[in-house]
Amino acid sequence: MKVVFGTFLLVVCWASLRAQTPTYVADIRPILTQHCAPCHHPGGIGPFSLLTYEDVAKRGKFVAKVTQRRYMPPFPADRQFQHYSNERGLSEREISTIQAWVQGGMIRGVGGEQGIGSRKQNTGESQVPDALKPELVLRMKPYAIKGDGREDFRYFHVPMNLKHDIWVEGIEFVPGNRKLLHHSRLMVDSTGTMAGIDGISEDDPSLRNFQQTPLADEFLYGWVPGNDRVTFPAGAAKLIRAGSDLILNVHYSPSAKADQDQSEVRFYFAKKPAERIVQTLTLTENNITNQPFKLPANTTPTFFMNYGPLPDTIQLLSVLPHMHRLGRSVRAFAITPDGDALNLIKIDDWDYNWQLTYFFQKPLILPKGSTIIAEAHYNNSDQNPLNPNHPAKTIGYGWNSTDEMMNLVFYYIK
Ligand code: HEC
User: Fold this and answer.
1) Does 140 lie in the same domain as 101?
2) Which pTM does this prediction carry?
């Protein structure tokens, strides 16, 4: 009797343990469908597919590690500090479910043979909802990427041939070469003097001259993998003047073999002139309070920014912090005239590869008289594995990826 009872207990315990151990089918697949599959499917921007049990189980420990560290899904901003409409991330519970699944031996569960969803469901990359057709599509000239195994930073001049001003409520960048195109930035020039920038490399000495040109819009749009079409809130749009041209700054990853890129920019026009013009506020070197912006070799400096008091009330739509490889962390607030602090962004572990435009859940009102303040930390030491220079050398402000920057870019309306 004793033995039978003991066995009974054992079976009960085992059964309840089993019940608590998550399975792929019941627990893991739904998490991955929502948070990983949009990028990790065949042909997607993720380096491998995570659609089937085998795909995931093969890398179970790796998946557990990158999710626990919140490296994946990529969203470097602190979501406790501020919430964004384009937020990505797993809940604590989802993270611990993945941990428990891996520790529990990665049980498949019943019915998992077919993996995640159908193909249709996994076209996370088709960036345009079918109903929307862009009014204007501009393509850069085809660019031949060298197969020399080096990073390549290029500037392209793209004529817009605009006879009239346009009101743009949505902008989208579609990389021609998804494998090698790492990120890009769109600028607007209205001086007509930038045609010579066509395809030049960032270390071309003439780039410095172009940098002196005052741009009509230093930051129309920035693209990194996973940053989809931006759409401004109803009634708000960017105004691009007739006669303007686009300047495209593109970073290509190193490639061992020659390849090609011809990327495209799509504009979605507002039906009528917008009531509110979306403007870009870019805080740059000039707004740094502890000048000069110099990072001596083997130091870990901090720089501070101050902008304001604002002459008018503005409504911030988004924030995009920008640094290069020596950046470690960044924080920004707005202080209202009443002394309230409005959280803008906090990134504790800066990742050069994931520079997103963070859209606030609703426009953030900064009353007249507010000040924007920011601080950014850098590590220009030999110990920083991301330092592009070994041995470390003194670095100043500049566009090149081997220079450094501290920028905050905001879309706003009045
Ligand atoms: C927005 C697109 C995107 C999403 C969403 C995404 N990934 Fe990734 N993932 C990438 C890209 C691109 C890389 C390669 C570049 C890198 O490592 O940053 C990557 C790399 C990885 C790696 C390898 C990391 C390394 O150090 O080599 C793992 C593991 C991974 N992802 C797992 C996941 C999991 C699990 C999820 C969901 C919880 C997820 N990813 C969500 C785009 C994405």
Assistant:
1) no
2) 0.83
